[in-house]
Design goal:
10 helices; elongated
Length: 231
């Protein structure tokens, strides 16, 4: 059975994000094909896709290599997410389906339950599923795809500190869903913007030395005040 290139692409991307391949290391078609049990054709296609996404670069005399992003690139990704996630939430308030709401509410229930019990093992993956579903609810495949790619690259470049108060973090998720369910785009945008700011402050660049840009962003952030957004 021929394994499709997008499946190979996902496997390689996941391994890059997980740190299996170090930044700057070579990615030879032969070794990748052997690792994933495929021919070189889907590997070649996957590498082209990953190069377009910014995970891979082609170097003269070396071929495909894992990209080596800069501190500025890492900070730019967080800034892009700060702009796009609130927009996606606003669109979701107008375009979401009942199926989207059902999934979002289910994720919020699970997240709040895990947070109350102090079981943080699943919270990160639940949060990822929540934001992915929220992006899909925007009704814009282009925006959803861009946010998914941003999340992959941010996860690759940054480590994330666990929320100091996961119960409050999941209360914010719940407030976002409530606004989306009511069709209140402005409130959904505002709460998501504050939630994204808090999340950004917890990110640290994996490869930066000294006081990185993420640290400077954290120090410049004002405390997030949710009181003005609660009814």
């Amino acid at each position: 059975m021929r394994i499709p290139a997008h499946s190979v692409c996902t496997a390689i991307r996941d391994d890059i994000v997980a740190g299996v391949y170090e930044r700057g290391s070579r990615l030879t078609e032969e070794l990748l094909a052997r690792r994933y049990g495929v021919s070189r054709v889907p590997v070649r296609e996957a590498l082209r896709t990953l190069e377009a996404e910014g995970f891979v670069v082609t170097r003269r005399h070396a071929g495909a290599c894992v990209a080596e992003p800069t501190e500025q690139e890492g900070a730019d990704l967080l800034e892009m997410r700060l702009l796009l996630e609130p927009l996606a939430a606003s669109r979701a308030a107008q375009r979401r389906t009942e199926a989207h709401l059902k999934v979002l509410r289910g994720l919020v229930r699970l997240g709040q339950e895990r947070a109350r019990r102090g079981n943080s093992d699943d919270l990160r993956s639940l949060g990822g599923w929540f934001h992915e579903t929220l992006a899909q609810a925007s009704g814009s495949p282009a925006m959803s795809s861009m946010l998914t790619q941003l999340r992959h690259k941010i996860a690759w470049m940054h480590t994330v500190e666990a929320p100091a108060n996961p119960v409050e973090s999941w209360a914010e998720h719940g407030a976002i869903v409530d606004a989306v369910a009511r069709g209140d785009g402005e409130r959904a945008r505002a709460i998501t913007a504050l939630h994204a700011e808090r999340s950004t402050a917890a990110h640290r660049l994996r490869f930066a030395s000294g006081q990185d840009r993420a640290e400077r962003v954290r120090n410049s952030q004002h405390p997030v005040n949710m009181s003005g957004l609660r009814h």
